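Q: Could you fold this chain for me?
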Amino acid sequence: VRLEESGGGLVQVGGSLTLSCAASGLAFSGQDMGWTRQVPGKGIEWVAGAYVDGTTYYSESVKGRFTISRDNAKNAVYLEMSSLKVEDTAVYYCKAGDHWGQGTQVTVSS
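A: Sure. Below is the predicted structure, expressed as structure tokens.
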């Protein structure tokens, strides 16, 4: 299984970014997918999930600002982030079951 994130970067407060995760080596359409994030020295936060049954999940900290979507034809999952805050600064990881990507850094500057 390989999960490859892209789209991270530096953005100002209030800005937007879209993260992408390209998945391979798994039956993507039958796999729940999600995004987590980690701030150095802090725990991992489950940010959003896009499930096989079509439902989604968002943590309270991002609800209303982030949107997760998946494209089963492209084996990809996306995280659209808007109204970004300094506290959204973290390494974001794509997750599929027990598999993680290498992460992509998102830095929000004030």
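A (continued): The two ends are 37 Å apart (CA to CA).
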